[in-house]
């Protein structure tokens, strides 16, 4: 039994450390900060080929390093037709997100939380990419976005701007860190 507990602890701590080493430790975005983005990001600015289902926009939204998926759940609350996909390598926050999804299987049927290193994933179908990462990861992150994203995709970055790239929008809220919004990166 103690060895099982040690194994579980090792997996939890180990995968969280892995995320921290790759791009950022798990620091969940505050509710007010999530709402600031979802309320102010103009999804009509998303690529013109975003499908419109039943009169509603249905963009594909990725959170790269999604933690417990709270940003995606916020988007899903506002845009029930959006397809929301998150990748994370840390199992503990993913597990929390899975519980939220299981508690609301209908409301969050369009939210998919996946275990995986986002540097190795494909997201060419993204209309919107959201990320909250440490600046040390930006060079590799930018290269990954340039490789994958369609030119019209929107990118929303929390807290620290991408270097040498002009944002198309800055979303600010009182006592909150800014969101920097970019279009494509080519
Ligand atoms: C600052 S947290 C942000 C969590 C979530 N996006 C939010 O705002 O609440 C960064 C997350 O990125 C994850 N992460 C870091 N590098 C990653 C990588 N290469 N692939 C997948 N997840 C990664 C970490 O495990 C951590 O959960």
Strand arrangement, largest sheet?
5-4-3-6-7-9-8
Low-confidence stretches: none
Number of domains: 1
Strand fraction equals 15-25%
Helix and strand element order: HHEEEHEHEEHEEE
Distinct small molecules bound, one entry per kind: S-adenosylmethionine
CATH superfamily, by name, is Vaccinia Virus protein VP39
* Biggest sheet overview: 7 strands, mixed
Under the CATH scheme, the architecture is: 3-Layer(aba) Sandwich
Radius of gyration of CA atoms, rounded to a whole number = 16 Å
Q: Give the CATH level 1 class.
A: Alpha Beta
Helix content range: 25-40%
Describe the structure.
The protein has helices spanning 2-22, 31-40, 70-78, 91-103, 138-148; strands spanning 52-53, 56-57, 60-64, 83-88, 111-115, 128-131, 154-158, 169-171, 179-183. The model has no long low-confidence stretch (mean pLDDT 93). The protein has one domain: Rossmann fold (3-Layer(aba) Sandwich). The termini are far apart. The protein is α/β, with parallel strands linked by helices and 186 residues long. The chain binds S-adenosylmethionine. S-adenosylmethionine binds next to helix 1, helix 3 and strand 4.
